[in-house]
């Protein structure tokens, strides 16, 4: 099953479609970290490692997002081909 999050470039608000098994904080902050994604699917563990090595987890926002990755239940994450949607596989 794929979950889709749309984000609008103008105000970067997140429009949620079927955000099942995703932590609310993760849903709120994932747009801020979307630049770390590509249109190739990566595992939740790989994504968490990318976040951890790219940003300091001593930063409160990064630490909260990093923790929310593990509170969310998804197998893979990627950007859609047009880079306007974040896709999750469960």
Ordered list of secondary-structure elements with their pairings:
Layout: E1 2-7, E2 14-17, H1 24-29, E3 42-43, H2 44-54, H3 60-71, E4 76-79, E5 85-89
Antiparallel strand pairs: 1-2, 1-5, 3-4, 4-5
Helix pairs in contact: 2-3
Descriptive key words:
90 residues; 5 strands; 5-stranded antiparallel β-sheet; alpha+beta; globular
Briefly summarize what is shown.
The chain is of the alpha+beta class and 90 residues long.
Task: Kindly describe this structure.
- This protein is of the alpha+beta class and 90 residues long.
- It has one domain (2-89).
- It has helices spanning 24-29, 44-54, 60-71, and strands at 2-7, 14-17, 42-43, 76-79, 85-89.
- Strands 2-1-5-4-3 form a five-stranded antiparallel beta sheet.
- The longest helix has 12 residues, at 60-71.
- It starts with a strand and ends with a strand.
Count of strand segments: 5
* Major sheet: arrangement of strands: 2-1-5-4-3
Distance between the termini: 5 Å
Low-confidence parts, pLDDT < 50 over ≥5 residues?
8-15
Helix tally equals 3
Q: Residue share in helices?
A: 25-40%
Portion in beta strands = 15-25%
Largest sheet: 5 strands, antiparallel
Structure class? alpha+beta
Mean pLDDT: 84
């Amino acid at each position: 099953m794929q979950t889709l999050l749309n984000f609008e470039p103008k105000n970067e608000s997140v429009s949620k479609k079927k955000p099942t098994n995703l932590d609310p904080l993760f849903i709120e902050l994932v747009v801020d970290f979307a630049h770390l994604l590509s249109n190739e699917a990566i595992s939740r563990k790989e994504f968490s490692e990318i976040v951890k090595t790219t940003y300091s987890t001593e930063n409160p926002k990064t630490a909260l997002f990093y923790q929310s990755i593990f509170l969310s239940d998804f197998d893979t994450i990627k950007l859609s081909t047009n880079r306007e949607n974040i896709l999750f596989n469960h």
